Amino acid sequence: MVGVTQEVARRNRWALASVLLGTLVLAGCTTAQDPRRAAPGNAAACVQLETFALASRSLSLPSGGVRIIDAHFVPEGSGAEAEGGTSWPDHCRIKGHVEPVDSTAPPIRFEMAMPLAWNEKALMLAGGGFDGIIPPVDQPLFSQPSGFGPSPLERGYVTFGSDSGHEGTTVEVLTPLVDGSFARNDEAFQNYAGDALIKTREAAGAIIDAYYGRPARLTYIAGGSNGGRETLLAISQWPEAFDGALVAYPFWNHGTTTLAFGSVWRRFTDPDAYLWPAQQALLYDFVMASCDALDGISDGLVAHPSACRPDLETLACRDDTSPETCLSPAQVAAIRNFDSPTDLSWRKSGETHHPGFPVLQGADLRGPQQMGNAVPGHPIKPDMPMTAQFYDQFIRHAALRDETINPWVIDSEAPGPWAGKIGDTVDRLDVPPTSLQAFRDRGGKLILFQGLADPIVSPRSTDDYWRRLEGVIGEPDLKAFARYYLIPGYGHGAGGSNAFQPAWDQLQDLDDWVELGTAPAARTITDVTQHGQGRTRPLCEFGQWTQYQGGDPDSADSYRCAAVVGQPE
Q1: What pTM, to 2 d.p., does this model score?
Q2: How many CB atoms lie within 10 A of CB 173?
């Protein structure tokens, strides 16, 4: 995090930019024809935005200015046949660049969708992983089916997002979101670390003002995983820029968690320790058999993880057991390490541990996003664990900037001569808990949710973030502007292996809280996995677990949110 002096300077620059945006939008235009000369917010004004530009002085952080690459009008219904049945209203679609200062750095590519029937609100969409792709601006939030409420664009929100300052590739890795090669460029790395957030926010704000003739009345931000980190960073670093935030499974301790990935997967580089798909399924079934019924019902969900303590030793191979039905000593040791805290006491600042992952409490390691189908190693194999690929990219490109190094020779719990560079990189990426007082004081609201079965962003880590916020600001004051929910069976978003994938109208909850002062009440969530068939559960806050009371096992009415032992009712 930046120091106090830098923080004040950043906030002052943002405040100054906010005051001056109205004049700078015009002063920075490179065309003689101002888009405002057309009627605001229509198709003609949309096309005219192709000539819109902002000078570098219009943004509060250094840049090469802003330019529009493409502006075209999209008529209603163009997306009616899209996957999931998402339809689009009449809107202006923008593609633009925030140009770099360094000519060797890539631009920040961004996209916007600006509806004709505007509700005077805007929603910024954060990224995921190492970013490198632009979030879709015309889809429902968090990959929810369209039947659970209109997309933000359909509701009348301006939606926008960026690639955070680089374009990801799959030259080495499974997905562009895991490509870290951009990080060898200083400006590209700093944009990813956080600067792209405010640059994109300011560019979008200026374009909104130019198109509609007035700024957005309210601006929200939403993101999961690294997008959750970005969202928490945005509301703490630039609280004046956002009125509300939706955060899912936040990668808030980005660098720290990545070092934990290194500690975890380094054990599995031993082929005798790696779990092949059949053994991944064996482990998952063992944990479910041990813990599923602890909430009162066997429903495929571990809803009471604090009571879940399976004896892994009972799964260990013995002389009279078949290798297909047991785990070797090396496998047992590697899984225990996966579940255990990572010791980072070598660090001279910031986080000094990671609390481990819930692989013995219901997290599913099956599938390409999790353990994959190849032993971790160097060079990368596309079917080895995705987070092992992520660690590889972090070490070689972001921390050490040495493409040739084998990252598995480095022990992340004792990195020796590499400690300085690795520690500095972690400091630049972690977003430790703050009081969020400035965000709260201007009326900002935060809704945070986390899956209990997430093997990438551990619920223990998000719990730690929340507890530390409580310690700084106090529980009653925190609950006045923030909520934190935990969801059994939910992994790492729609891309993982989910026993329960929740759907509910998070954006409406946030908007009602900001606009009307109506805090979220009791909520029911619906499982939208193929096997879930629409079953429902209550949405329980931190400090509670979902307890079965009897009745229809697929109905939320048959459950209550019970206090975790040691927590008040």
Answers
A1: 0.91
A2: 23
